[in-house]
Amino acid sequence: MVNTKVNLCGITLDNPVIPASGTFGFGYEFAELYDINILGTFSFKGTTLEGRFGNPTPRIAECASGMLNAVGLQNPGVEAVIKNELPKLRRVFHKPVMANVSGFSVEEYTETVRRLDGEEDIGWFEVNISCPNVHGGGMSFGTSPEAAELVTRSVRAVTKKPLIIKLSPNVTDIVSIAKACEAGGADGVSLINTLLGMRIDLKKRRPLLANRTGGFSGPAIKPVAVRMIYQVFDAVKIPIVGMGGVATAEDVIELMLAGATAVEVGAENLVNPYASRDIINALPEAMEKYGIKNLEEIIGGAH
Amino acid sequence: MKDTLFEVITNKKIAKNTYECTLRGDISDITAPGQFVNIKLDGFYLRRPISVCDAADDMLTIIYKVVGEGTEAMANFVGGERLLTLTGLGNGYDLSPSGDRPLLVGGGAGVPPMYMLCKRLVALGKRPTVILGFGSADEVFYEREFAALGARVIVTTVDGSVGVRGFVTDALGGLDYTYFYTCGPEPMLKALYNATVTEGQFSFEERMGCGFGACMGCSCKTKYGNKRICRDGPVLTKEEIIW
Q: Is A128 in CB contact (< 8 Å) with chain B?
């Protein structure tokens, strides 16, 4: 028997597989397909202080081995999440959930986390300072170490729950951002969010996405994720939640060897709604194949 | 919603750039006309959402127009090929408000879902009139199939090469109907919204990520809040649409 348990910021996960925010809603669409309690946990749909419709459509474009999205943080707002979504989620998921939070100012991030902090189901906060699809917020906090540290420090002050900051790959030096989050009191960092991309409709000679640019995800970005996780692992002491193009149990092992403690699965949930379940089911055999008895022992094993 | 393998039985061209494909598999989750399936294609990352033309016994019929690389690849499907297909997606049409003489209006690639709808309405003893709108005579398909169901069929073509010259709205004059159902390009839907005299249901198209409500890629605003075309739609009622 192999051991797939990992400890993420003081909470034990049955396995390191975590569906990523924005690809899993609040869980209940997937709960119709399989028992989502097999998951390590999942990161729920990015929540902001006020409800948002998001960007105009088309919001989705296909790429070789991946996709662009420019959803723009559509969500019902923190109060509706507490009132409507979390009670529904509670009925189908009985483990601590990861609360993904986004914002347009330091105050908004802080207030959203403060309001969610009393919800017992929330195990971790994942604060997204890296959304490439909104203007005047999101990624702008994740592209400078000073702003990243400021958000982290401010959110830190209103919650004792594990605080994970989700980082953007669209930066010159992700290591300096990760270090700034650690200095600001983060318990972990998650990376990578989507890569800023664009596609053009040849017939219309216009961008395919109404927002013009979008976030690139899917198997194509995995090497970028592996490289950034590897770099950040060397520079910080806090755990890393790795993500980027994960589609198989082998991908999970690869990101963990690079330095991830847990691994998020994103775009793959959209093309295969059973992806996270399939990866969890395949993990023991993949571990045996690579001589791994205890998954936790391989974290950063490639260094 | 169910993700299962379907086997291609036939795949043939039935009009200009238009293919009819029959597939064998588990259709038990297809519960209403107007629903769609999402098909995994070799070499493409995202699945292709295609409306259900008919589903009976263990056979699924889809009709698609070649408009891009994905549908181009689909045109090359051969018998025996197995396709991972997510079925039972979307809400589909609600038959209950149809009245005795429902009007069904399909435009181009919006014609296929009208077929299963027409079949179900006829089975309920309704007397549907069907308007099928195309650009030109070489694009026309399923005129006989609808007639064989017992529906009154009116074909329109923009260039007048067959049937009524003009758009589907040009065939509305003098028609007596109790309710309407439609699917087609958005300008056509909008024109019908203004030209129809009863309540009705519209099926919308949008670029999708997942097809089952997880990614928020295909959202739209309605009088009753934001809806996902793939999950809360693709069928919306006339009354809830904001135009």
A: no
Give me A116's structure tokens: 């969610």
Q: What is the pLDDT of residue A276?
A: 98
Quote the domain boundaries for residue B226.
102-240
Which chain B residue shows the shortest CA-CA distance from A266?
B215
Question: Do B127 and B217 fall within a single domain?
Answer: yes
Residues B106 and B78 in one domain: no
- Which of A21, A60, A221 is most worth mutating to test chain B (most B CB atoms within 10 A of its CB)? A60
Query: B140 and B58 share a domain?
Result: no
Residue A168 sits at the chain B interface (C-beta within 8 Å): no
Arithmetic mean of pLDDT, A85-110 = 96
Distance (Å) from the C-alpha of residue A25 to the closest C-alpha of chain B?
5
Residues 6+ apart with CB under 8 A from B153: B129, B130, B132, B143, B146, B147
- Mean of pLDDT values over A199-210: 96
Please indicate whether, in this complex, the C-beta atoms of A274 and B3 are within 8 angstroms of each other.
yes
ipTM greater than 0.90, yes or no?
A: yes
Q: How far apart are CA A205 and CA A202, in angstroms?
A: 5
Number of domains in chain A: 1
Instruction: Select from A281, A229, A231 the least CA-distant residue to A255.
Output: A229
Do A54 and B219 lie within an 8 Å CB cutoff? Answer: yes
Same domain, B7 and B69: yes
Looking at the domain assignment, is residue B94 inside a domain?
Answer: no
Query: Is residue A294 domain-resident?
Result: yes
Q: Is the pTM of this model over 0.90?
A: yes
Say if the Cβ atoms of A58 and B207 lie within 8 Å: yes
Predicted pLDDT at A14: 98
Question: Containing domain of residue A136, as a range?
Answer: 6-55+72-198+216-298
User: Minimal Cα–Cα distance from A141 to chain B, Å?
Assistant: 24
Same domain, B108 and B38: no
**A185/A162 Cα distance (integer angstroms):** 10
Residue-level pLDDT at A133: 72
pLDDT tens digits, A227-278 = 999 999 999 999 999 999 999 999 999 999 999 999 999 999 999 999 999 9
> How near does any CA of chain A get to the CA of B78, in Å?
23
The answer to whether residue A205 is domain-embedded is no
Q: Is residue A175 in a domain?
A: yes
- The helix (H) or strand (E) run that includes residue A263 is strand A260-265
A181 is catalytic: no
